[in-house]
From TrEMBL:
GO terms for cellular component: cytosol. Residues 24-324 form the D-isomer specific 2-hydroxyacid dehydrogenase catalytic domain. It comes from Lates calcarifer. This is Glyoxylate reductase/hydroxypyruvate reductase. Gene3D superfamilies: NAD(P)-binding Rossmann-like Domain (3.40.50.720).
Length: 326
């Protein structure tokens, strides 16, 4: 029975506890070979592999590796973003590319609101004071900004953006959004969101600007000097998309000069930032290490969907989440 299962290449099963615990899902459908074992004898293992299960952008689906996999049928990505994959090139080899939209939306929306709240109410600074051995009294100067009733501008109103809007409604926030395509009237009414025909208007009016776009050539550097200068000096930028969506040099200057109040980032470029990067030394920046989907339940659902996509591709069945270029 084991011999009948197709072979799949995985980056690091067994190296990280959480991923090792999830290999049971993969092993129900595939014989798994780790990337480090594959590299020891690619001529032996390469012809057997029909699927690459990509997690955390690893293993990197580069031409040099793909050329060693003549039987490959699918590169199945765990996560929504596929900016680390050369989809046209992979497709040119007759290989499908898949991702896992939908299942990541709730966890990413949760971390988005967590970043917004933590930055607005100085939660991290408060914790540091509370646990500092030198603290002898509770400071009254640690003042944040109001979230309830403020204006949230969401740039990118897809699955995740809409989930963020749902959560924001509970804080009685005024919700603006900018998107390639306007949502339906029903969707707008469900969360009380107003569509902005141009991004500049959203930037000028928002107290919090939330970036929830995919990284594409069009969104690379979407927020730069000009866009930051349009924001209120009391505004906060929250980024849960990709680091390259923001010009980080421009962001550093905006934060240092008071052009905007603060930034809360789950993504940077690169990840992690060099330890001497100026963003790391600013008191008005909150950074988390790209943990938007990092819950046990969401991770398990991502792996399950990744495997379902891979199985369908290997068997020649309709693929639930194939990435198709527009």
């Amino acid at each position: 029975m084991e011999e009948e299962k197709p072979w799949a290449l995985l980056s690091a099963a067994g190296e990280q506890d959480y991923l090792e615990a999830l290999t049971d899902i993969m092993k129900k459908h595939f014989q798994i070979i780790c990337y480090r074992d594959f590299l020891q004898n690619p001529q032996l293992h390469g012809p057997k592999i029909q699927a690459i299960l990509v997690w955390g952008a690893c293993p990197a689906a580069k031409p040099s590796m793909l050329s060693l996999l003549p039987s490959l049928k699918v590169v199945a990505n765990g996560g929504v973003g596929i900016d680390h994959l050369d989809v046209p090139y992979i497709n040119s080899l007759g290989v499908k590319v898949t991702n896992t939209p939908g299942v990541v939306s709730d966890a990413t929306a949760d971390i988005s609101m967590g970043l917004l709240l933590a930055s607005a109410r100085k939660i991290v600074e408060g914790h540091q004071i509370a646990v500092d051995p030198k603290t002898t009294h509770i400071p009254q100067w640690l003042m944040g900004v109001e979230v309830t009733g403020s204006t949230l501008g969401i740039i990118g109103m897809g699955h995740i953006g809409f989930k963020i809007a749902q959560r924001s409604k509970g804080f009685d926030m005024k919700i603006l959004y900018y998107n390639r395509n306007r949502r339906s009237v029903e969707d707008e009414q469900a969360v009380g969101a107003s569509y902005c025909q141009n991004m500049d208007d959203l930037l000028k009016e928002s107290d919090f600007v939330m970036l929830v776009v995919n990284l594409t050539p069009e969104t690379t550097g979407l927020i730069g000097h000009r866009e930051l200068s349009l924001m209120k000096p009391t505004a906060t930028l929250v980024n849960v998309s990709r680091g390259l969506v923001v010009d980080q040099d421009a962001l550093v200057k905006a934060l240092q000069s008071g052009t905007i109040r603060a930034a809360a980032l789950d993504v940077t470029h690169p990840e992690p930032l060099p330890r001497n990067h100026p963003l790391l030394g600013l008191s008005n920046v909150l950074i988390t290490p790209h943990i938007g989907t990092n819950t046990y339940a969401t991770t398990r659902r991502m792996v399950q969907r990744m495997v379902e996509n891979a199985v369908a591709a290997v068997k020649g069945l309709p693929i639930p989440n194939e990435v198709k270029l527009k």
